[in-house]
């Protein structure tokens, strides 16, 4: 028997000065329980995903979920972390609890409060997801890590500024229709392609429009075993999942190949007994536009060095053969680190239940693919979701 998503909640992402980690957690926890039409007493376990690493002064946050409903008191609660894939790590923890028989219903929450820190401190905090012994002095923090990846990609396959601008423009155009997105503005290809006062170089070949956003926000899911899910009003089933971890130092890998991403996709598709062509859409981890470009290749949509073809042929746009990041992605929606993986699953569940915004709602979607990445392709999580019928 499989595990299903039976309820969800999602705050807007952005700069939320009136919210802290506690208020974000309790807000989505209550809303997700209400969405699933269950009470806290029905939950067997709670899991919190948050990167933190200095973003918030509050440590030991798992039990803050209990403050959303007194009936959650004395339930097992744990916090998990796996860099930018923290949200998916929390979901996997919940899946294992159900699949082992230890739980029937699990509440999973992902959260991050990033914007309270000065910009320099945000960069230092994010860089902790890199291998500091070798990468700690890279100019530009974590953006500098991906600028180095971008430089190496250009050296191997040629300059791809046009492709990166098309990715940024696509995701911002999609984000216009997502009421939860941090930036709901169609910036256009020319703006994303050109240097300007409003789109300056961040580091190397990456401009501001190539970089995901600093965000606050939270998302939550209610997971249930299939037997329980069939009694619910709606449910989305995990057809398959996969997690792959690679070396942390970039020096130990061919960093432009994202081999962990490739393996995770291969494992998940094999377990689901489907191919990439069977997917209705994909939500992928566009922390930087160069990451989305390489992910096209890593998932098998194109050959290495040919990711630009997915854009040139229109495959990844709404209405294409495999729309990518209809939510706007991290580029437009925002990237509160611990919440991102949960957000991807929430927005995919909305697509599969026909409740996404009409402008980007896929017609009769059958299967969703999700790729959530921690670090520079170090932690790779893939989920294949389908409506429970």
From TrEMBL:
Q: Give the Pfam families listed for this entry.
A: Thiolase_C_1, Thiolase_N
Chain ranges passing through the membrane: none
**Which SUPFAM superfamilies did the record assign?**
Thiolase-like
InterPro entries in alphabetical order: Thiolase, Thiolase-like, Thiolase_C_2, Thiolase_N
Q: Where is the Thiolase C-terminal domain?
A: 251-386
Domain named Thiolase N-terminal is located at 4-182
The family database entries (NCBIfam families) matched by this protein are listed as:
PRK07516.1
> What's the protein called, per UniProt?
Acetyl-CoA acetyltransferase
Lineage of source species:
Bacteria, Pseudomonadati, Pseudomonadota, Alphaproteobacteria, Rhodospirillales
């Amino acid at each position: 028997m499989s595990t299903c998503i039976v309820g969800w909640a999602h705050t807007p992402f952005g700069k939320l000065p009136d919210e802290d980690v506690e208020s974000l957690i309790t807000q989505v926890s209550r809303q997700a329980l209400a969405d699933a039409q269950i009470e806290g007493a029905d939950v067997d376990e709670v899991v919190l995903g948050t990167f933190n690493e200095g973003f918030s002064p509050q440590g030991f946050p798992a039990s803050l979920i209990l403050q959303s409903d007194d009936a959650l008191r004395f339930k097992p609660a744990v916090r998990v972390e796996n860099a930018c894939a923290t949200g998916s790590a929390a979901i996997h923890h919940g899946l294992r609890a159900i699949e082992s028989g230890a739980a029937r219903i699990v509440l999973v929450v992902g959260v991050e409060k990033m914007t309270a820190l000065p910009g320099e401190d945000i960069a230092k905090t994010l860089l902790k997801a890199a291998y500091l012994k070798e990468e700690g002095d890279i100019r530009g923090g974590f953006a500098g890590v991906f600028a180095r990846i971008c430089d190496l990609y250009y050296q191997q396959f040629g300059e791809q500024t046009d492709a990166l601008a098309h990715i940024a423009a696509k995701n911002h155009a999609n984000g216009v229709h997502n009421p939860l997105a941090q930036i709901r503005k169609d910036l256009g290809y020319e703006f994303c392609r050109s240097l300007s006062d409003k789109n300056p170089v961040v580091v190397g070949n990456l401009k501001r429009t190539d970089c995901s956003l600093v965000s606050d926000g939270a998302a939550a899911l209610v997971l249930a075993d299939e037997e329980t899910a069939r009694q619910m009003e709606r449910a989305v089933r995990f057809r398959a999942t996969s997690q792959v971890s690679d070396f942390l130092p970039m020096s130990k890998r061919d960093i432009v190949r994202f081999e962990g991403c490739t393996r995770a996709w291969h494992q998940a598709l094999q377990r689901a007994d489907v191919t990439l062509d069977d997917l209705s859409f994909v939500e992928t981890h566009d922390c930087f536009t160069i990451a989305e470009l390489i992910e096209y290749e890593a998932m098998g949509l194109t050959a290495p060095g040919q990711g630009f073809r997915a854009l040139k042929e229109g495959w990844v746009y709404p209405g294409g053969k495999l729309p990518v990041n209809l939510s706007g992605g991290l580029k437009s929606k925002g990237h509160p680190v611990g919440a991102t993986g949960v957000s991807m699953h929430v927005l995919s569940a909305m697509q599969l239940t026909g409740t996404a915004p009409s402008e980007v709602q896929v017609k009769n979607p059958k299967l969703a693919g999700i790729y959530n990445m921690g670090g520079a392709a170090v932690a790779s999580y893939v989920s294949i979701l389908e409506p429970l019928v």
